[in-house]
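Multiple sugar transport system permease protein: structure tokens wanted.
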Amino acid sequence: MTFPKLLKNAGIYLLLALGLLITVAPFLLSLMTAFKTPSQFANQPALSVPNPFTGENFSALFSGDRNFIAPVVVTAQVVVAVVIGQLVFSVLAAYAFARVEFRFRDGLFWIYLGTLMVPQVVTIIPLYTMFSQLGLRNTFWGLVLPFLFGSPYAIFLLREYFRSIPEDLISAARLDGAGTMRILWSVVIPLSKPILSTLTIITVVSHWNNFLWPLIITSGKTWQTVTVATAGLQTQYNGNWTLVMAATTVAMAPLLILFAIFQKNIISSIAITGFK
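Answer:
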């Protein structure tokens, strides 16, 4: 290897290492702060290793009136409900837009897709008004209903994948007497496992970290999600940063476990969303 090429490769790896450091540093800082006492956090440098390590922040998080287990359970319930709803309704809508012939199909699809251009904050007040009048404020259904019936991004992602499935397979199934739902269940869905895994992972991460809607539609601790409960640990006069960092570590743990288990699926999902 020539010296210029070696220098070029060294520069590339240096940039990659710098990018890795910038990306990972906030998580390391959060983790180290979670194992510090408030006095250590105040008196030691931010990037110093806790000396000694302490687990009092985690014990305080799961004891007394804070009861951080409840927000984790609520968030898990919300994520499971939304994932099921997104998969069922997005698959049905995407298949209709991709393979079922009906009048104004493409026009309706592009109008619906255009709602991606509307910021979420624009619909927050109308949604809150509707749910309040329906008596769904501070309820489980109030948390999940706005996201239960699919989303423009999910339908767009699935539609493009369904359109890439060879028409010959669907025609052959139709010649064998299969109806629309039979084709969808027996042909399209088995061939779409990679994109369905992608959608599941994206939905889990986005709704586990969802903050704005749970903050607005809930009050009190009954239906607090992880993000709202973590924000609630801060008060006007006390940041409680060591406790907050312990809460963020607990909130990150399920996503890290998800990544460890479905590592291959996540990598393939990045490839699919990047090249399909």
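Residues 39 and 262 are 39 Å apart (CA to CA). Residues 3-34 form the longest helix (32 residues).

Cheers.
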